[in-house]
Write a structure and sequence with these properties.
The complex is a heterodimer.
Chain A (H helix, E strand, L loop, with lengths): L11 E5 L5 H27 L3 H13 L2 H26 L7 H19 L5 H30 L3 H22 L30 H20 L1 H11 L1 H7 L3 H28 L10 H11 L4 H25 L5 H21 E5 L8
Chain B lengths: L1 H30 L7 H22 L8 H29 L4 H27 L6 E2 L1 H8 L9 H8 L3 H19 L1 H11 L1 H6 L4 H27 L3 E2 L7 H11 L4 H16 L10 H7 L2 H16 L20
Antiparallel strand pairs in B: 1-2
The chains are: A mainly alpha, B mainly alpha.
Chain lengths: 368, 332
């Protein structure tokens, strides 16, 4: 057979890396973020004609400009971190819980129900205890339903949890109208404004401090749970390989149910903090898309609660900065979403360079 | 009752067509093993690209009467297809070439796409200097929604079957074509193999990356047309931010409801469209709260289908076995 062409090695081939030392991995991610910021600057100048440096300065001011803004940033970080902590155990188990939005709403709805229905008849400290129990239970149940079907019949959890979000939204919409104040307004308004029944206590005069403290405690708790307990170990094994888990004797169904109970419960706490602690009302949009952002926060942090503080900070900073940009420059507030998207794409793409290595064809080498 | 149906069905169809576009596109994508959760974003991008194309065309006209019907349709369509194609390529590059996690990539794309659509929608509103928060492109959109000329004279038959713009019929044709392609052609068989078991398909010599890229890009373009239909036909060329709402997620739900069969999607999308607006027609008097519960119907129905499909475990009804998983040859 005539050999017309020299058999050439492909231009590059890919191989999987062994684990990188952590500083190299974070170096790659840092480079990705910087590259993303450069692209964002170019995009900003192209689309809006503003000087990108000025835009970035405004972003910083939006996040850190005044002490009030810093508190708002911390509050946003706290709530987003809470939801991200909630989805982490589920995702570590490769249970794609996209239903955090609905679980937060369920917890918030339970909290609001307690505040509205029991606000006048029960002493405040008891009311708050009932609220805590109710919101955790509501969130947990909302998370348990898809988990049950997944454990028993392997029903697709990504889509089930997604749909549960919308069911929860409509339930909230229903109750908003049932409890609306004043009648016909279509919204509930501030609950128990005069009596402040069920309002979570304000510590040290700072409205958001309680939320921040609770979430800080949750972060440490979740880290310890995932890293150092038997449950956390079981979660990792099920996530790595379900078959191995069964072989070792771990009851996968129990792990799925237990983990989603936890996931929903923490979402319920987020709902409690939002309704009882900050907003003192309930609307269908009170979760604010955090259920989806939390997925990205948790994934970016490689499901490590400590790193999650950083990724939550990054995303909240982008969000606050973007809303500042839109006010100052008269840009559409959706510009922040575009920037967030670009940065996320770069970070997602950079994971490739961390997990895989490119080998280029070296010229002049011939097989012997 | 009959006259209710005659008015209700066309409205249900109008709601269902964007869902049909989205579901057909996503079905083709999912058959290749890519779970593209960025479809809501892609539909926004397709819609806004169509709007931008239409807007630029209208601005370039020397006089409003000089509008060329053919160009008024083709330019927005090409813009829409181009935008959706770019989004599809981005998704493929990240998930197929860079082997990123598909769920995260899809959610990032939805965030980006919705932001992109709302941002340019808002900017165009500012550029035209209009006081209302929406742009109206009535000239070009009238070409989209123009139905067959004799439809009006055929009474109820015309109203139910013939009174839609050409994109609606295109959606049905595309769904039928997709269904035929998947079930009766060799390329469709290869595509299904890629989604079910890429390792085996790879061993048989099928180029996995090429099929995934092609399926996802074609799927994105089809889904983008759904956004275009919504803005140009249903909304009569009026873009207002977030008007499209959560229909993208409903399209993803429709994929499961139709058990990954685009031809089932034709009637199912009308059903979903009908469920989506059913709450407007329920005679519940002044009790607005019950209507909120009715809005849950499409999602509850989808959950039921999800459960039933997993209970019966019929092989033909299962999602593609490798849906959502990246393929890396060395790990085979």
């Amino acid at each position: 057979m005539p050999m017309n062409k020299q058999q050439q090695a492909p231009l590059f081939h890919i191989s999987k890396r062994k684990a990188l030392p952590w500083y190299q991995a974070w170096g790659i991610r840092g480079a990705a973020i910087i590259l993303a910021l450069v692209v964002c600057a170019v995009a900003t100048t192209l689309m809006t004609g503003e000087d990108p440096i000025q835009v970035y300065i405004t972003m910083f001011e939006g996040a850190f400009g005044t002490s009030r803004k810093i508190w708002i940033l911390c509050q946003n970080i706290a709530i987003l971190l809470c939801v991200s902590l909630a989805v982490t155990p589920a995702f570590k188990m490769r249970f794609w819980n996209l239903g955090a939005e609905g679980q937060v709403l369920a917890g918030g709805l339970a909290t609001a129900a307690c505040m509205i229905l029991l606000g006048d008849s029960v002493p405040n400290w008891l009311l708050i205890c009932i609220m805590i129990v109710a919101s955790i239970a509501a969130g947990a149940i909302w998370g348990l339903i898809p988990a049950f079907f997944k454990a028993k019949w392997n029903t697709n959890e990504t889509l089930f949890t997604l749909m549960m979000n919308y069911v929860a939204t409509q339930l909230v919409a229903f109750f908003v109208i049932v409890w609306e104040v004043p009648k016909g307004a279509g919204k509930i308004g501030i609950i128990n404004q005069s009596s402040e029944a069920g309002w979570l206590p304000v510590i040290g005069g700072q409205k958001y401090l309680l939320n921040i403290l609770i979430v800080a405690a949750l972060t440490i708790g979740m880290y310890v749970y995932l890293q150092y307990t038997k449950h956390g170990y079981e979660i990792s094994v099920v996530g790595e390989s379900e078959r191995t888990a069964r072989y070792v004797g771990i009851k996968v169904e129990k792990v799925i149910l237990r983990t989603m109970l936890l996931s929903g419960a923490v979402c319920g706490i987020a709902g409690l903090l939002l309704v009882g602690g900050t907003d003192h009302t309930i609307t269908t949009t009170i979760a604010g898309g955090r259920g989806f952002t939390a997925v990205m926060v948790a994934w970016l942090a490689k499901f490590n609660p400590i790193f999650m503080v950083l990724t939550t900070f990054l995303l909240s900073f982008l969000d606050r900065g973007a809303s500042e940009i839109s006010t100052i420059f008269g840009l559409n507030s959706s510009f922040g979403d575009i920037l967030t998207g670009i940065i996320l794409f770069f970070i997602i793409g950079s994971e490739f360079f961390i997990s895989y290595k490119l080998h280029f064809r070296t010229s002049g080498k011939k097989e012997g | 009752m009959f006259s209710f149906l005659v008015t209700f069905i066309p409205r249900a169809v109008a709601q269902g067509i964007p869902l049909l576009f989205g579901a057909t596109g996503e079905t083709i994508t999912e058959k290749s093993g890519n779970l593209n959760l960025g479809i809501p974003g892609i539909m926004y991008v397709g819609a806004i690209c169509g709007v931008i194309g239409s807007f630029l065309y209208e601005q370039s006209l020397p006089a409003p009467e000089a509008i060329n019907g053919f160009l008024a349709v083709v330019i927005p369509m090409l813009a829409c297809l181009l935008g959706s194609l770019l989004m599809g390529l981005l998704y493929c590059f990240l998930t197929v070439s860079l082997r990123a996690n598909q769920n995260v990539t899809g959610l990032a794309m939805t965030t980006f796409g919705v932001g992109f659509g709302n941002f340019f929608g808002g900017s165009l509103i500012k550029l035209t200097g209009s006081e209302v928060p929406s742009i109206a492109l009535s000239a070009t959109s009238s070409f989209f929604s123009r139905s067959l000329p004799f439809a009006d004279s055929l009474g109820w038959f015309g109203q139910v079957f013939l009174s839609y713009g050409f994109l609606a019929y295109l959606a049905i044709i595309i769904a039928l074509a997709a269904s035929y392609f998947l079930k009766h052609t060799r390329t469709g068989l290869h595509l299904r193999a890629v989604g079910e078991n890429p390792a085996t398909a790879d061993a048989a010599g099928i180029n996995i990356s090429r099929y995934k890229y092609a399926a996802t890009c074609v799927g994105s373009m089809i889904a983008g047309l759904g956004g275009l239909y919504y803005v140009m036909d249903y909304a009569s060329g009026v873009w207002s931010n977030n008007a499209f709402g959560d229909r993208g997620w409903l399209a993803i739900a429709l994929v499961i409801f139709t058990v990954w069969r685009p031809n089932v999607g034709i009637l199912s999308s009308i059903l979903f469209g009908g469920l989506y607006i059913l709450y407007l027609y329920i005679p519940s008097g002044t009790d607005l709260s019950i209507k909120e519960l009715y809005k849950m119907l499409p999602y509850l129905v989808t959950i039921l289908v999800l459960i039933m499909v997993s209970l019966r475990k019929k092989r033909e009804d299962q999602p593609p076995a490798h849906l959502g998983l990246a393929y890396f040859r060395e790990e085979r």
